[in-house]
Amino acid sequence: MWKIIDIAEADYGCEERMPGEPLMVLVCLEAEDGRQCQFEVAENWIISQDLDVGDEWPEDIDSDEDGEAVVKQAEFMENYFDAVEELEESEST
Predict the structure, then answer these.
(1) Which of 2, 11, 28, 59 minimizes the number of CB atoms within 10 Å of its CB?
(2) Segment (H or E) for 30
(3) pTM score, whole prediction
(4) What is the pLDDT of residues 65-80, one digit of tens each?
(5) Cβ(31)–Cβ(5) under 8 Å?
(6) What integer is the mean pLDDT of 53-60?
């Protein structure tokens, strides 16, 4: 079981969303064994599912064929955010 521990507006940086592109949110989930993953999902889907922080994620990521893809995407996003932060720090010095 995965539990929603955070829902935050996705960071579009200096780029704006394309016309018609849905507003995305960054969802952070935590498994019972402490594993965490983050991925983006359309905000309107979260609303239509009536999901909020503390709720159980409606899909079983572990048995889902795309579960590995979610974990890989979460790792990519974490590395991406680390790289952006490092770049910003190097530009400010």
Answers:
(1) 11
(2) strand 24-31
(3) 0.60
(4) 555 666 666 676 677 6
(5) no
(6) 86
C-alpha dist (Å) from residue 7 to 24, 41, 64, 77, 88: 10, 10, 21, 15, 24
Q: For residue range 1-27, what is the model confidence (pLDDT) as tens digits?
A: 899 999 998 766 666 767 777 888 999
Position 62, amino acid: D
d(CA 23, CA 16): 10
Rounded CA-CA distance 56/23 in Å is: 22
Residue listed under structure tokens 């960071």: 11
pLDDT band at 90 (very low <50, low <70, confident <90, very high): confident
* Cα gap 41→61, rounded to integer Å: 14
Phi-psi region of 46 (alpha: psi -120 to 50; beta: other; left: phi over 0): alpha
Name, in order, each residue with C-beta under 8 angstroms of 71's C-beta and a sequence gap of 6 or more.
37, 61
